Structures are given as structure tokens and as C-alpha cells.
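Teaching soon. Got one?

===
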Amino acid sequence: MPNAAAVTAGNPFLEGNFGPIMEEHDIQDMEVRGSIPKDLEGNFLRIGPNPVHIFSVETYHTFDGDGMIHSIEFSAGTARYRNRFVQTEGFKLEQETGDWVWKGMLSMLDPTPARVPEGMPGTKNLANTAFVFHNKTLYALHEPSQPTVIGLPNLDTRGTSDFDGKLTHSFTAHPKVDPHTGEMMTFGSSFEAPYVNYSVISATGELVHTTPINIPKPIFMHDFAVTENHSLFLDFPITLDIERAMAGGPALGFDAEHGSRIGVLPRFGNDADVRWFEVEVGVVIHTANAWEEGRVIVLQAARSKTTNIIGAGEALGDDPTETQGQLYQWRIDLDSGEVEEGLLCDVHCDFTRINEKYSCRKNRYVYGAIFHPTRPLTFNGVVKYDNDTGAKVTYEYGANRFGGEAVFAPRVNSQSEDDGYIISFIHDETAEQSECLIIDALDLAAGPVATLMIPHRVPYGFHAGWVAA
């Protein structure tokens, strides 16, 4: 059990179900309401921040927390739950020290002397944000850091990867894997020019292509999108500005004057090959998918008018939904240079996901986590959007029941794009009960076909993943 500092009060990111747990579990006998489908085979994974040693309760931000993975392994109608800290070098050093070593993102300007030993990176690898599964390898991701290899199903940490020394830039939390070629496309953002670097990793795990992407200033580029032949970069107005932070403002700020544009690059192109297309000013944190229709590129993502991520920006008026995304589409004509864009679905949502067998190609269905209308950073349901008909179906978790990212898991021998299950962790704050919901994607409105009652609390987290058996 980790040597934990006793800090759970005085900061909303440390209280209630946002607060950390310190125990690691391995549980096979859980109460199940309904029946676990026998054609659900694989590992449902959710990662998020679970801080142990904290420099300052007042300035702690949820992005600072040590990575913890919660997983459920499904096999033949049974389920096995596990949770494990990601044993990064930084996590292990703080455990050995018994106190904080790295201060946190909102404490960068604090005059307290750093405790980082010589030779270790100034930024702690938290491995707390998202997953990617590529070349039969599961990686836990943290944008300023190298990807961390995680073993399945036991969740053991196997160290970081620099792809035989060829990875020379940071690694986004949202790389894209083309299921047809097996290639993985990734990028990294930086405070220093060229601000963005892009790479392609082959189906066998060899980094085969890297190029800088020159943009005017550093920005928060959290996600991108990939089609059959192109990669799309979002130069949107969440800017990074240390001088602004030193003047008392946010390091990350919403800057409408920066504008919004989408860069289109051939998969193996270089910086000179990027074509930039101006679009209406807005914010995209997470994309859903992108594909090609002849010479037209289609991008779908959750888009908001502004943002409050890490306190950046401000709501336009008093409507909190100004900072909440809605499913949106851009159609970029590579021949005419024209862009058609507009709202697809009025439900406020984020964490947009698809059946990943359709990544980089046209998909029919998009799933998203529904924002609570007034409570920040909280999701209270899931929505399914149909690109062919424009129809939407929703399922809400119920009063005082909140969740996070829901993923699509294809049914064994599935017969259609939506023939599978939507899986997510939720927490009932009234009953103080954490659960895993399994919903038939063909009948989302009907709610769970099975609910696993987790015998301890599963804190709210970041991204989820599915790895088929």
C-alpha cells in the first residue's frame, strides 16, 4: 500500500469521488445485477489521476495526480476487477522519499525550491490520461512524457518506450491507430518551437517518420484526427503563455484572436505539405473520427464555443453550456479550399468515441458522455448519434449518479457497426456505490443489461479503453 499523505479536503479535486484511493484490489466475486453477456470478451480499462503525495492542496489540479488503472476482465460471462498504480519512475521515487518531489502544474511559479534529483526530468511522468493499444502492446499515456507499457491482464508496469531511441518528442494522449494498415500516428506538443512534432509508427512498432509542424505559438493541442491518407491538426485558441502566467493570468488561456484552423497533412508528408483551412472560432478537446469522401475530408468532434479547462477562458455570458462540447462536423474540400461546418447534435457531450474498427474510415455511430447541465466536469449519461439518419438516443444514469468516458466493445462475431456494448464506470453519490454498467449498444435507451457492483469506491477519472481478448 502506498505511503500516502493525508490530504482529502480543501480542494474539489481531492474531495468526494474525485478524491484518491490508496488500496489496490483484485476481485472476482462481485454482485451482478442482470447477466454479463457471454459474447463480451476482453478488458475494459479506465485510467485517471490518483494522487499520493501533493505539494499544495490549494493549487493541486486533477491533471497532477498519479496514474491509476481500473480494469474489468470479461470472459465467458464472468468478470474480474483489478486496480493498480502505474509504477512510473516518478511515482516510485516519491514512494521511496515518502513525500512530494514534483510540485504540480499550477505551482510552477511557486518559489519553493524543487526537489527533483539531478538527471531526472523536470516534469513527472504521471501516466494518468489515456490508453492506446498497438502492436499487441498497451500504453498508458501522459502528454509531456514517453508512453508507459502496461501488461495485460495484470496491469503490471513494464517501463517507458522511446521506440528504440527514435521518439524524440513528447507523445499525445490520443494517438490514432489505423485498423487497416496497423500504423499508429502520433504527435507531441511543446513550449518551444516548432511547438508540434508528428510521427508515424509502423504496424510492427518501428518509428518510421517524423516531421515538425510549424505553428505561430504554443497551444494546448490535446487531440488530432487521422483519415485513410491524411492527418489533421487543430490549431485552436487555447494558447500557452508563460508571460501571461507570470503576470497573474492563466498559463493556458482562451484567446479568440488566435483564431481556429485545421491543418491537413498527407500521412507521410512534411511541414511544407501542410494545408491550413480557417474555420469558425471554437474549442475542440477531443475528436471522434475523420474520413475521406473523394477529395473531401470529413472531421467530427465535440466542439464548444469557449473553454474552462484548467481555468482557461471564460463563459460567454452566464450559460455554462458555452464551455460544453456538442458533436460538430467540418467538411474540407481539398480542391476548392472551401469548408462547410456545423452542429450535428444538440446534446452537450464530450469523450466522443466510435467502434474503433471504423477509425480513419466513415463510421455511422458516435457515442459521447453527456455533460451535467450545471455541475462542472461531470457526466450523467451517454448519447448515441446516427450519422445516416441524424437520430440520437440517450440514456441517463439517474439522480446523483455520475460517470465518465464510455467505450464501445464489439460483440464477439458482431454483425454490424453497433453490434456490441457500451461500458462505463459510474458512481452513485447518494448510495456511495461505484458500479460498472454494460449497455447493449443496439438498445441504448433500455439501460444496462448488467451492472457490476464494485465493493469499493472507483474515483472519477479520465479516459477509458477496450482491448478485445
